[in-house]
Every structure is written in C-alpha cells, then in structure tokens.
Amino acid sequence: MSEPTAETVTATAHHSVAGESVIKPGYHPSLTNSDLAPLREQKWTWYNIFAFWMSDVHSVGGYVFAGSLFALGISAWQVLVALLIGIVAVNLLCNLVAKPSQLAGVPYPVTTRVAFGVKGANIPAIIRGLIAVAWYGIQTYLASVAFGLLALKFWPSLEKYGDVDQYGFLGLSLLGWAGFILMWVLQALVFWNGMETIRRFIDFCGPAVYVVMVVLAGYLIYRAGWDNVSFDLSAGEPLTGWASVTSMISAIALVVSYFSGPMLNFGDFSRYGRTFGEVKKGNFWGLPVNFLFFSILVVCTVSAGATVIGTDDDGNIITDPVHIVDRIDNTTAAVLGVLTFAIATIGINIVANFVSPAFDFSNVAPTKISWRTGGMIAAVGSVLITPWNLFNNPDAIHYTLDTLGAVIGPLFGILIVDFYLVKRQKIVVDDLFSTDPGKTYSYRNGWNPVAVIAVIVGSVVPICVVVWGTAYQASFTWFMGAAVGAAAYWLGMRFAPTGFVYATGEVPTATPTADDTLEPTIA
C-alpha cells in the first residue's frame, strides 16, 4: 500500500481500536469510519498471521473435527493425504482472498465493494456477520461446558444446579448459564481492548496451548503405552476400493468447508500484514504445517485417551477434549487441560467470530456502528439465539448453519473472479469510499446487479443440496456455490450490457493518481 503524503496524514489520521487509519476529505461518511478506512501503517509479521491460524485451529470444535476425520473408515495414510490436499487448497485460497485487503489496507466488507458496489457490499457483509453470530454462540457454549465440569471437580455440591429441569432457564441450567456468561465476558474484555490486544493474546495463546496439548498427549501416551496408540479411530471394517476413494474426497472437501468462514473474511486480518510475502509465509506455517501437526496430535491424544479413560456410555471413543481431560484422574492435569481448551476457544471465537461481524455490521452503518459496537451486537445476538438449543437440535443446526454456509461459496467465488479476472488486480482505493456517480464502484446507485444475481444463482444449488441431498453431497456445497457463483459473475460481467451494470451506461474510466491506485504484481 502506498504511503499517504505528510499533509494527508496530518489532516486525516484517525486512531481506532481496530488500527490507526487515514481518512481523506472526499470519503463519504455513509461509507467511512476510522475502523473501515485504509490503515496508516501495516505492522503484522508472518508470525502474527501464523499465531492467528494457531488460534483458529485450537478449539473444542477443531479438536472434534480433526478426530472425526480419522473415524471415517479409511486408513491413516489416506486421511493424512486428504488432510494435506485439503489444507494446501485452503492455503492457496487464503492467499488469493488475502491480497486485495493487504494491498488496500481495508477489511473484508470494504474489499467486497469492488465487486458488489459501495452499497451492495452489505449483502456479503451481513451474510458473513450472521454466520459468525451463530458460530460465536455455539463456540462460547461448547467452551463454557469446560467451566461447569471444572466447578464440579472442586465443588461437587453444585451438581444440582446443573439440572436444567430443576434450575433451568431457556433450556440451560443455572450452572450452564454461569459458565456461558463467564466465557462471554472474558471474550468481550479481550475484544473491547482492540486489535493490538487481540494480536498479543493470540501471539501468546497459540504457542501456549500447543505446549499444554503436547504435555497432555505425552501424559496419555505414557499411561496407555505406545502400542495402544492407533491412527485408526473408526469402528468396524475399514473401507476399501471406491468407497475409500469417495471418503477421501469427502474428507478433502470437509477440510476446505471447515475453514470456509475464516477463509472468506481473512482480509480482516491480512489488511494488517506488513507485506503480502509476510502474509503468505504466515499462511504456510499456520495452515499446512500447523494443521497437520495439530491433527496428528489430536489422533494420538484421542487414541491414547480411549485406553486410559475408556469410552463413553454408548461405547464410542471420546473425541471432545473437554470430556477427555475431565475424566483424567490427575486433578492438576484435568484443571490445566480444561482451562487450556477454554482459552483456546476464546482465541478462535475472537479471531473467527468476533472480529468479522465487528467489521461487517460497522460496514452497514459506519456513522452509527463502530467496530466495537458491531462486535457487541454480535455478542448480544449470540445469546438471543440460545446456541445450546441450536447445538442440541441436529435438524435445527443442520438447516440453519448449512444453509447460511452454502452462501459462503458464491461470495468467495465472486470476490476472487472479480479481483483477479475482471479487475486484473487493480483497486482504486479512494473510490471504495465514494458515492459519486460514475466512480469505479458506483455501478447502479451503489449496487452491482450482476453480483447480486450471481449470489442468488450460486446459492440455489448448494441450498437445494442441504435441504434434499445426502450428507455426502452436502460436504461439497462450498465447491458447488463457489463454482456456480464465480461462473455466473464472470459471464455477467463479460456479456451483460454496460447499461445494465452501470447507471451511466459506460464502464467507468478511472484516472487515478499514484496514491490511490494499486496495481500489484503477482507475487
């Protein structure tokens, strides 16, 4: 990103908890605040990006997800190959989506103005924000269970307050509410202090969680014996032939789908990257290297845990790390483990489900909703949806989250096709904040009709699969949506009459200065 002139910096530098930004006099208030404007200085190194991904992977949900891949019924080497292919794909896709935000120094919802228009960008912003609210609530609830189990270890008399029938409200027990509110407040405190505090938090917690995880795995392996550690967690006969191949393909798709949320709004974090090279380096260490190591660590822990602590009441291997450490007879190890996974979930919730809606909701009404306010709207919304009821109802969580998730693919496909194929990696930064007719991203009164139609067309197929398809087909909804959305957008921008796309009837001819145009080379 080019450096603003000294005069511009003096006149328009604005401090924000999301980072110090530069606002030029021509930026329209309805599109601008100090949180959304281009950063004055980008400071994050590759390690900060690496720590971001460590925090994103380390969670109760990530632990269960990684363990479930080894229970698909295919051999360990097939799982590892699927993991490698899937996470390398995520790495490449993250590099693609990171570039425009890193170059312009703006968050994800502002970047989407390039394709959707300065007003139409609220469509992808609101969709991503709603998904984050739902997952924020669920992740908070899952981590809050750890505090309940921890409290019962020290104060067994509290057990009666865990009875939802006797001491329950809106489907959650009094003990459950205490844990949920505690998690909610802790996350809000970290978030409220801004991106610099969040950066320090994930920089420390990412490695710290790993240290405890390695110690926990070592303890369980020592107790179980290496002979009792298996990389195959499936029950019954292993799959062979074509059935094993289709399961491998499904595993690859599941890995990409699992990261689809943070991958879409990764620009919220890549905007802070010092250079695009630093971002790519952080992605490499944080995705292929980190996720593979994490997955191997998980399967060793779960497998050894099955020998040391046994199975659940139904005879199934326990993959939830909170319940694994809760059953360890060593109180110190159990307490340390429970607290670690609670802290890890705070990390992923903040980076994946707090920061995103903060920017997304702020983008809807910049003059009324700041980054902090947007985040707190998401936090309050996460309580109102009563995520424990959503999580404990398989049908509700399937149709709600999978339907919302099916729209992520088209949004991603449109963003990538527009930046790399349609706009040829050019961004006129000042026009991102202008409502004047004839500007690069004005389209039709601030809306690009091609992008809106592409989202609708690209969402129909995956949503139909969610509603009427099989579980196997549902694992490919992201790919379906991304492909259809990208194709529909490219065809529309290529062949639709200019009078349909632009109010002026002509494609805007930008005459940018060296300060407000970014024409990057391919790195």
Automatic annotation (TrEMBL):
It is found in: Membrane. The chain crosses the membrane at residues 63-93, 133-155, 167-192, 204-222, 242-266, 287-311, 331-352, 373-391, 403-422, 449-469, 475-492. The keyword Transmembrane applies. It comes from the Bacteria. Its main location: membrane. Pfam families: Transp_cyt_pur. Keywords: Membrane, Transmembrane, Transmembrane helix. It is a multi-pass membrane protein. This is Putative allantoin permease.
